Amino acid sequence: MKKSGLDLYLLLPIKGFIEKQTSVGLLLIFSAILAMIFANSPLAESYHSFWKQYVHIGINDLELRKTVLHWINDGLMSMFFFLVGLELKREIMQGELASISKSMLPIAAAIGGMLFPALIYTYFNGGLDSISGWGIPMATDIAFALGILYLLGDRVPLSLKVFLTAIAIVDDLGAVIVIALFYTSNLSFLSLAIGAVFFLILILANKIGVRNTFFYAIMGIGGLWLAILLSGVHATIAAVLAAFAIPTGKKVNTPLFLRKVRLLAHSIKSLQKEPNLKREQREESVTNTIEKFKALTRDATPPLQRLEHALHPFVSFVILPLFAFANAGVTINVNELGFFLSPVTLGIVLGLIIGKFFGVVLFTRLLVWLKISSLPKGVEWKHIYGVGFLAAIGFTMSLFITELAFVEEQYLVQAKIGILSASIVAGIIGYSYLNWITRSSSKNKVLKRKVKTTAVEKTGEVANVKN
Predict the structure, then answer these.
(1) Is the pTM for the entire model greater than 0.90?
(2) Which residue range is the domain that position 293 belongs to?
(3) Is 335 found in the same domain as 264?
(4) Would 219 be classed as within a structural domain?
């Protein structure tokens, strides 16, 4: 069966992206379990002390001194946020957030899914020192959530996976804004000004047509990221800003690319038939022409897409599992079981499971009821209820905000217990519910098919008797 242009240029890339995310989800689960095993074993002390070791980078007075955990959370995770920024920009330029009509529903669902959890957490922690953790239950972990949808296979529509992906991306943007506005230390306006200069340089380079990714890497890391890190604003914000400065245009447009490809192909055929060339000369000439293919392909691919494809494997299969292993390890003592009833843990658990569900479902209902938007093709309300639970899996971003929100060890432990507990419960409920409704739908379809077949057969028998 021949694939349509929509399948080739929209659905297949989205499907590929989703399949990558689901693999990451399974790896994150393994990393979190491994961290919990280490943190509750005889190696617990070594596990916790390792992340507190200091690493120095610099010369003399120009030195950055941070713990291993901080280098992971402030440094390596900036690459994750850079990738989030690239994906967000792509969605805004040509994806699910490209038009108002397409983007309204996931944006509203994401806003509802951020607002209700924050309100529930605030209800339990209002007036307490732990109120600073209100941003923790706002997040959705796209890798975990899509990983669970992946386990259901083709029984859930692709449009549902796209809808959940769009919600999670908007959710990530919301988390970035919350981090920038509410989880910053004392500000250095000089460093911020220097960062603004480097950001303007990146924007200007984009406008005048600079397409060299190394230039953006040097200006983005050595300039913008370092300046924002020293300013007091969290360094991951610099990563998102740098991502938005990456060009989406390309040196060679598609028609020109196709013409040059045909010329190069013709050149290779001519070389193969050239009688005056020796075998070694012919092979060398063909190899050089093939290298031109590579250069041409690079020029016909936008820098944003090249960077996204290059970073995705490293971020997904190295940085995120390392982050999970470093942050998910919580040592649980018998005396600390009361933490499950603490305001922090209750606020996070109920904020994620109940707040996310009602926020996503109610805001989606509201937009459809007001006829501002409609459900994606193939998606029913029963699917939205399942997505409401899956959106409550807030693992990666929730753990990240926890490290920014709290310094006290007891709050850190309570928050991590709440995040892990809520994510596990939400994942089980979401999977079980979607598995149940999809199996019921499949059985109903089979039953209807059998009834229809039987009716047709009986109609045929009656016709034969009359004849």
Answers:
(1) no
(2) 256-300
(3) no
(4) no
Instruction: Answer yes or no: are the C-beta atoms of 55 and 71 closer than 8 Å.
Output: yes
Residues 380 and 260 grouped into a single domain = no
- Based on the fold, state whether residues 344 and 279 are members of the same structural domain: no
Q: What is the DSSP string of 259-283?
A: HHHHHHHHHHHHHHH-TTS-HHHHH
Q: Is 229 part of any domain?
A: no
For 216, what's the count of Cα atoms within 13 Å in the CB-facing half-sphere?
Answer: 26
Are 129 and 81 found together in one domain?
A: yes
> Residues 6 or more apart from 23 whose CB is under 8 A from it?
147, 316, 317
243 found inside a domain: yes
- 375-407 burial, b at 16+ Cβ within 10 Å, e below that, comes to bbeebeeebbbbbbbbbbbbbbbbbbbbbbbbe
For the chain, counts of helices (H) and of strands (E): 21, 2
278 and 311 inside one domain: no
- Whether residues 445 and 366 share a domain: the answer is yes
What CATH number corresponds to the domain at position 124? Answer: 1.20.1530.10
**Running DSSP on this structure, what letter comes out for residue 134?**
G
DSSP 330-392: ----GGGGGGGGSHHHHHHHHIIIIIHHHHHHHHHHHHHHTTS--PPTT--HHHHHHHHHHTT
- Residue 147 included in any domain: yes
Q: 3-class SS at 435?
A: helix
Q: List the pLDDT tens digit at each of the 467 positions of the chain.
A: 444 444 444 455 555 554 555 567 677 788 888 988 998 889 889 998 998 898 887 676 667 778 888 888 878 888 888 887 888 788 777 766 667 777 888 889 999 999 999 999 999 998 899 999 999 998 887 777 777 777 777 788 878 877 887 888 788 788 888 887 787 766 788 888 988 999 999 999 888 888 777 888 888 877 888 888 777 777 777 888 888 888 877 766 667 667 777 777 777 777 676 766 666 766 777 677 777 777 777 667 777 878 888 888 888 888 888 888 888 888 777 666 666 788 999 999 999 999 999 999 999 999 999 888 888 888 889 999 999 999 998 888 888 888 888 988 889 889 988 998 898 899 899 989 998 988 876 555 555 555 555 555 555 555 555 55
* 86 and 155 together in one domain: yes
Asked if 307 contacts 86 with a C-beta cutoff of 8 angstroms, the reply is: yes
The total number of structural domains in the chain stands at 2
